[in-house]
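Final report, closing paragraph on structural work. Over the funding period we assembled a curated collection of sequence-structure pairs, and we close with a single example.
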Amino acid sequence: MQPVSEFRSADRSNRSVLASFEKKALIRMAHRLPAWVNSDHLSALGFVALIGVGLSYWYSRYSNIGLILVIVFFALNWFGDSLDGTLARVRNQQRPRYGFYVDHILDACGSVFVFGGLALSGHMSERVAVGLLIVYLLLSIEIYLATYTVGTFHLSFAAFGPTELRLLLIAGNIALFYKRLVVLGGNQYLLFDVGGSIGIVGMAVALAWSIVRHTAQLYRAETPPKAPASQFRLKMLRWLKFNAVGVAGFVVQLALLAIFTRVWGIHYLVATTLAVEIAVLHNFVWHEAWTWRGLAVEDRWRRLVRFHLANGFVSIASNVLLTWMLKDGLHLPLLAANAGAVAMTTVLNFALAAVWVFRAPEVAAEERLLRAK
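Its predicted structure, as stored:
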C-alpha cells in the first residue's frame, strides 16, 4: 500500500464568478460549525440531498410542491458538498485520497438520481435527460483523469462552476411556475428540454476543449522535442490546421442550419446568424488549442473579442449577405448557397486571424523592432 506521505494532492482551480465570495462564506461557516459535525456528515448530507432532488423532481409531476422541495434540497446539497472539504482544511483534518474519492463517487451516483428524476418529472423528455447524464459523466471522467495526470483539479469551466449550475437549475424551477412551454419557430417545446439541450451543447464544448487542451499538454510534456521546422513549413502547417478547423466548423454550421430551419422552423436568415455564431465559437476553441496553441492564457478573452470582430463579424456579415445573394439572386438551394458563402471568406478569415487575432504581443513587438532597424 502506498504511504500517505508519498501522495501529493492536486492543485485546485476554480475561476467561476462566485468562487471568491463562496470561499470566504464557506470558511466563515466552517469556523462556526459545532465540533460534533465532521466532513463525513457533510458529504452524506450532500449525497442524500441529491437523492432528494431526484425524488422531488419526480414528485413535481403531480404537484408544484416538488419544485419547491427541489430548491430546498439543492441548497442542502450545496451546503454539504461545498463545505465538507473546507471544514477538513480549516480543522487541519484532511484525508486527500479518501475525501476526493468519496466526495466524487457520491456526486456521480447522486447525479443519476437527479437526471432520473428529471426524466420522470414530465418537465424534460427522457432523451434529453439521458443525454445530459451521459455528457455530465463524460465530463466528470475527463476532470478526474486530468486531476491524476496533469495535477490540477478543475472545478469550473470559463465562468461556471457547480454553484452557478445549481443556481441555473433553481432559476429554471422558478420559471416552471410561470411557463412550462416555449415556442420556437411556431412549435412548442418543454422549457427544460430547451435548457437541457443548451446544457448538453455547453458541456460537450467544455468536454472537447478540455480533451484537446490536456491531450496537447501531456503530449508536449512527454514527447521528445522535434527539430525546428522552417518558417514556410510552419505557415503551411498552420494554414492546413486552419482549414481543417474551418471544415469541422462548417459541418457544425450546416448541421445546426438544417436543425434550425427544418426542425425548429426558424427563418433562414436568423438561423444562418445563429449557426454561424456557434460555428465561430467552435472554431475559436480549436484555434486556441491547436492552430495557434501556446499563446498566453490571460489574453484569451482579448483574442475572443478580436476573433468576433474579425473572423466572426466577417463570417456573419458575409455569410448572411452572400447566402441571401446566392439563394434569392441565383436561386440556389439554401445549403449550397451557404457553402458558397463560406468558401468565399476562408482566405480573408485566415489573414485576419494570423496578423491580428492570434499573433502574440511579443511577436508583434519583435517584428516592429526589426522593421525599425
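Confidence is low (pLDDT under 50) at residues 1-5, 362-373. The first strand starts at residue 11 and ends at 13. We thank the funder for supporting this effort.
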